[in-house]
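thought: fold this chain, then report.
action: predict
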Amino acid sequence: MTTSWILLLVAGLLEVIWAIGLKYTDGFSKLAPSVITITAMIASIWLLALALKGIPVGTGYAVWTGIGAVGTAILGIVLFNEAATVARLACIGLIVAGILGLKFFSNGA
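observation:
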């Protein structure tokens, strides 16, 4: 895996952190969760920008949001008791398949 893809993976994981962090900020009224969330937002976008130096923008952005969507949906199930129906899990699996497809069939990285 190239450096750009590693940066993109970390950026996506940071997106999960800030998306989940939003729940804990209570509308940005709690200082510590707010600082963590905002820091993760900035770091995620910065790493995405660095990754896009070596990955096509459409691929990079789609993978970044896909990682965020899958991670946030899974943590929603684990942390917040959100529904884990077969249909929902299958849809998450389709997003994962899309992410992998973009990675393996992407030109330019």
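thought: worth noting. The chain has a mean pLDDT of 94.
final: tokens above.
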